[in-house]
Amino acid sequence: xxxxxxxxxxxxxxxxxxxxxxxxxxxxxxxxxxxxxxxxxxxxxxxxxxxxxxxxxxxxxxxxxxxxxxxxxxxxxxxxxxxxxxxxxxxxxxxxxxxxxxxxxxxxxxxxxxxxxxxxxxxxxxxxxxxxxxxxxxxxxxxxxxxxxxxxxxxxxxxxxxxxxxxxxxxxxxxxxxxxxxxxxxxxxxxxxxxxxxxxxxxxxxxxxxxxxxxxxxxxxxxxxxxxxxxxxxxxxxxxxxxxxxxxxxxxxxxxxxxxxxxxxxxxxxxxxxxxxxxxxxxxxxxxxxxxxxxxxxxxxxxxxxxxxxxxxxxxxxxxxxxxxxxxxxxxxxxxxxxxxxxxxxxxxxxxxxxxxxxxxxxxxxxxxxxxxxxxxxxx
Length: 380
Hints:
18 helices, globular, disordered C terminus
């Protein structure tokens, strides 16, 4: 029973994140129709991620107050519908509105899904949360290559066929018995909400923001960058998928390692390596460049599930808020950097934008070293 429930929760996470990350491959496909510049592409990327992430603590708060499996179903359904409908857009602003709505729907799933996951097996929270997070990362990774394959072979409207997966997920939730894993309703505790804005949680939030900023710049502009240096559209989308997929695998490993090595140690080392590998990728060519790119993807994503578990452990009475903060809010603020880096790319080129991303990841690693010094103890 526990296994089936977890697979459903992880599958919903993979599905809604797959739709969200159709966007990096969708933008080049619609660039001529929408007359896109790098800045407009950056606005679309930042907008979708802000919509998906900034409101997650609010969704988490609502879920804490009134938990229900409905919070699992309607976000997946609407994220798929709105993202698929965006391919019909004939103007930029209609396109932008649809992807923003898809982003909002995506954001509503994460607090509920992670809160249910948190209650499945208390003795395996680190591993289960890593797997749940990595399921989303795998869906996120598959998004660009699925869309690119469909567009290349059958045209933009073929993406509507993916909505069949949404129907299967909704049916699975309908027949599953989730009541035994539903969190108990929580009363509004302003002390828990206030903890977000001070001390150790605030420091961790800034580290999560910097990690998200650097990772999002690299992933969302990677197809554009690879096309500039000579790769085909399909190959570029495939490499983006591998960049994200190895990160998902690394997240599972990092979650397990953090149980005995310590949360903050994993965070610091992973972010430092991601900055180093990003620089080596920009310096390299051919097979070495691909190897360093994949290593960067693994290191940049690895600390994410560790950060989610750590944040939940800091706010055990408000797991929904903690989940929204770590899986959403930090991504939303970090995604503002995608717009900044889009402007940098327009003025000084994509390589300059990627070097800035590497420096941001390095800054996050440095800041993370202060977690223990600030009294944040590894909770293992």
